[in-house]
Design goal:
single chain, alpha+beta, Trna Endonuclease, Chain: A, domain 1, six-stranded mixed sheet, 5 helices, 6 strands, 26% strand
Length: 155
């Protein structure tokens, strides 16, 4: 496996896959291994599909302008991809735990042809290698996060 930055990105991708897979929404998830392409994860349910680029940052990114600056090339590639209705292009950004915080924060940005729109801030999620343990322990935070990701609908 690659160096520490590869591992950090890999952990974030695996965590998002676990969140989506265990959302209770009959979501199919596929992670593109060692992806150097436009999207890292593709997920779908009966109503929609998500094409996700996963990023991880050690520093807090607070503004939409900072996101567009930090990830300009990725966002530009994503905007060029034409999609049919029901397909969302999503930049999923995991911000590592900051001093004084208990956990890191997920932020989601829907990338449209002409604009980028931030989705809900999901600060109460769990990341890293303990993801599967928390899902199997029935941790309710996973269900809350899954509901936020899928619009709150249950199948």
């Amino acid at each position: 496996m690659g160096g520490p930055n590869y591992r950090r990105g890999y952990d974030a991708e695996k965590n998002l896959c676990a969140i989506l897979s265990h959302s209770g929404q009959n979501v199919w998830v596929e992670r593109f291994h060692a992806s150097k392409g436009t999207f890292d994860i593709i997920a779908s349910d009966r109503k929609s599909m998500w094409l996700c680029q996963v990023k991880r940052s050690k520093r807090r990114i607070v503004s939409l302008k900072a996101v567009t600056t930090a990830f300009r090339e990725d966002l530009s590639r994503m905007q060029k991809v034409k999609t049919p209705p029901g397909v969302l292009k999503v930049l999923a950004l995991y911000i590592d735990r900051q001093p004084g915080e208990v956990k890191g924060t997920w932020r989601f940005f829907v990338v449209e042809d002409q604009q980028i729109v931030e989705g809900p801030i999901l600060g109460d999620c769990i990341h890293g290698t303990d993801a599967q343990e928390n899902i199997h322990a029935g941790d309710p935070r996973w269900q809350n996060l899954a509901e936020d990701l899928t619009g709150g609908e249950r199948s």
